[in-house]
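Fig. S4 source data, part A: sequence.
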Amino acid sequence: FLSKEYTKECFPNNIKPFLFYVGARSGYKNFTGFLKAVASSSRLSKDFNIVAFGGGKFLANELEIIRTLGFSELQVQQVGGNDSLLGSYYTAAHAFINPSLYEGFGITPLEAMAHDCPVISSNTSSMPEVIGEAGEYFDPSNIDDIRWAIENVVYSETRIDELIGLGEKKLCKFSWAKTSEETLDVYQSLL
C-alpha cells in the first residue's frame, strides 16, 4: 500500500513515504490541524513523514507543536526551492494535503494534479469547485475527519489511482487555451 516510488538521492531525509503540504502555515492555512490529524493516527504517524514546502523555516512555536504532538524533527520537515524542485516533491509525494479553512482559488491542488499527486483537501470555499471529483474532501475544523480522509486515500492504491485519473481529466478544464477561448467569447458577446 505504500508503493509510490521516489528516489532517496533526491529526498535523502525521506526514507518513508511523505505527505506534502505547500505554502504559508499560519492561521487559516490550518497546518496545525493537519499535524494534529496525522499525530492522532498511530498508523499515519508511523508510516509517513510530512514535508512542508515554502512558507519559511519553522518558527519556534511550530517546532514546539511538532515536538508536543510526538513527531521527531526529521519526521516533519520544511524545505524550499524553485518550481522545478517543487514539482519533484509533488511527483514524489504519496499525497498532497490542503487543510485550509479558506482559499480564494487554490492553485496548489491543480499543481498536485499536474504531477499525478492525489489531492486530499478541505471542503471549504472554492476547493470543491476547483478540485471537483478529483479530490478526497474533509471538514478542516474536524481532526477526525481530516485523519479519515487521509487514511482513506493513502492506504488504498485503488483510490490513489482513481484520484490521479480524475485529476488528469480536471486539469483539461484549466488550460490556457480554454481560458483564452472563453475570454474571447466574453469579449465577442459584449460587442
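Fig. S4 source data, part B ends here. The first helix runs from residue 31 to 39.
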